[in-house]
Amino acid sequence: MTSTPTPSSTTSGAAKPAGSGLIASLVGIRGILALVVVAVHLAPFASAMMPVTTPAWNAVWHHGYVALDMFFVLSGFVISSGYRKVFARWPGRAVFGKFLWARLSRFYPIHLAVLAVMVAAVLVSRAVGHEIPHGGNLGWDLIRQITLTSGWGGAHALTWNGPVWSLSAEWACYLVFPILVPLVLRLRTPRACVLGYLVACAIPLVAYSFIGFDDASITYEMPLPRAFGAFLAGASLCQLTHVGSRIPAWIGRVTGPLVVLSLAAITVLAVFGHPSMLSLPVVGLIVLALAQQRGAVNTFLSTRWALVGGEYSVALFLVHVPWILASSLVINPRTFPGAWGIVGTLLIALGSFVLAWVAYQVIEKPAQRWMRTLVKRPAKAPARSLDERTDRVVTGRSTGT
């Protein structure tokens, strides 16, 4: 892994425009969010292994999903910061194709590898008279996984590698990105940017207030309002840093309190039985605050360990659910009874991290480099700003959502 410099704090009263360099804390936060997603999917298994902890795990299971909404905001912010000028007008098919190829290189090879292992495991298990949970069928469900359309809505369940729905939904955002950027660039005043952010946050909140905030609606029946709304919210926040507003700098000074406020908002919503997604307008501001590179939270998320977590976040995101499902066949309350349940839970969690490291080193990193070598840079495209610089903002390294 290449070394990543830690940016110094901004001392002026003005906002630091997004896209002016590597924002280490926006890399580090990816690792934290990935850990929350792992905890969400581990919750029902950990609860069964350690019944006394069930209330805590239930809280994580039902309310930790907000981490994915923040992922979408983060993606909208950092992708817009690197490509806002390139896509101010239609850049041409070559540049757009290179943009999509760069995005695919970040996650598609490892996605296909994990999917291939799952298909093989299902076929082998069926041959010996068993069935792996959530295997999906070998027809339409598998095709949607391969074509990254499983998160476009209309699905009957989360099949195969369930978390891929969010990457699929984000892929849909990339496909319409050249249309979104000119619209966001029309927000030329701080007031317009703030209004654009609130309207973008309202897209999923209003939509799901009618169709329901249930797991089916927000993950596989109709997830695109969630993805598009949060992605646009992130793009609007990015635009706010480019219109001469002091709002980002002000928010950057209160990053810590903003994190506490976000956790408090989620807690209050949970206590009163309201959907945690309603906290999106507050939670999304954490991305803007971190982009200002101020304070203790920014410093913590810029540490080496946080950056390593961010770098391995895609691999962890893609391998943890298949591993949890597979390992639970061996690691369960029968094999780890009573107090041994905590050992079993730790083994499941540790296995996810080990597999993520292996998948990153063996598949993700080499495949990403190989895919980049297959595309020749367009003659008039910026030498580094189009793909490599943006990927450093997103992932913290020069070769790689």
TrEMBL record:
Q: Which Pfam families match?
A: Acyl_transf_3 (PF01757)
List membrane-spanning regions. 21-43, 63-83, 107-128, 164-185, 192-211, 223-243, 250-271, 277-293, 305-326, 338-363
According to the entry, every stretch annotated as the Acyltransferase domain falls at 25-359
One example of the protein's molecular function in GO is: acyltransferase activity
- What keywords is this UniProt entry annotated with? Acyltransferase, Membrane, Transferase, Transmembrane, Transmembrane helix
Entries under InterPro entries matching the protein: Acyl_transf_3_dom, Acyltransferase_3
User: What protein does this entry describe?
Assistant: Acyltransferase
UniProt source species: Actinomycetospora endophytica
Its organism's taxonomic lineage begins at: Bacteria, Bacillati, Actinomycetota, Actinomycetes, Pseudonocardiales
